[in-house]
Design brief:
Blueprint (H helix, E strand, L loop, with lengths): L18 H8 L10 E3 L6 H4 L6 E3 L15 E7 L5 H11 E10 L5 H9 L3 E8 L10 E7 L18 H7 L8 H16 L4
Parallel strand pairs: 1-2, 1-3, 3-4
Antiparallel strand pairs: 4-6, 5-6
Length: about 200
């Protein structure tokens, strides 16, 4: 007999958003009445059913409609993505939106490098809503990010680039301790920079 899961949504790719929260998140989208909407991960349809228009469409892999293989574009793409595939969905939503997109995902899914990549595509972070949903049965923070093709003058993202450290910097900082040889210093600088890279993946 299989063990009973600790909570209803033990599969992190099938975690459904409460309707009242969805209504609040949808209100964050700066859409116009004539805009088209898409829910690219339909699930139970809670996002799709609350879009403020009939000019809408959806995708759901379990229904034979795979968003990741579609080239159809919409003004706004808004959904709760599968938590195991943030990179894939962030890139695809960015490619298929005309005006912007709203994405609900784990907070650590929106890394600095992804924010920078979206800016290169002309998509800027417009707002962030922080969520803790007790019914989901886990304590991880989830965020709802709204990206738009126009910058929000009242919202700013600050990303500090990692700095290259010299061997002298490392010695003074105590990061690597006392190094006697030039090769040791060189290798330690490279190793430290690689550690820094992890925060920008």
């Amino acid at each position: 007999m299989a063990n009973k899961p600790k909570h209803e949504h033990s599969d992190r790719d099938r975690i459904y958003t409460p309707e009242q929260i969805v209504k609040t998140l949808i209100s964050k989208i700066p859409a116009k009445p004539e805009d088209s909407w898409c829910d690219c991960c339909y699930g139970k349809g809670v996002f799709f059913n609350n879009f403020p228009t009939e000019n809408k469409d959806f995708f759901e892999i379990d229904m034979g409609k795979d968003f990741l293989t579609s080239d159809k574009k919409f003004d706004w793409i808004v959904t709760n993505i599968p938590f195991s595939q943030p990179k894939t969905f962030i890139q695809k939503m960015a490619d298929n939106c005309i005006k912007g997109f709203g994405i609900l995902c784990l907070a650590n899914s929106m890394t600095a490098s992804r924010l920078k990549e979206l800016e290169k595509k002309g998509l800027f972070l417009n707002s962030v809503s922080i969520l803790y949903v007790k019914d989901w049965g886990f304590g991880y923070r989830t965020d709802f990010y709204v990206f738009t093709k126009e910058r929000n003058p009242n919202f700013e993202v600050l990303i500090q680039e990692k700095q290259k450290m010299t061997g002298k910097d490392l010695l003074n900082s105590g990061v690597v301790g006392s190094l006697k040889h030039r090769d040791d210093i060189k290798n330690s600088v490279e190793y430290t920079n690689k550690l820094g890279d992890r925060f920008f993946e």
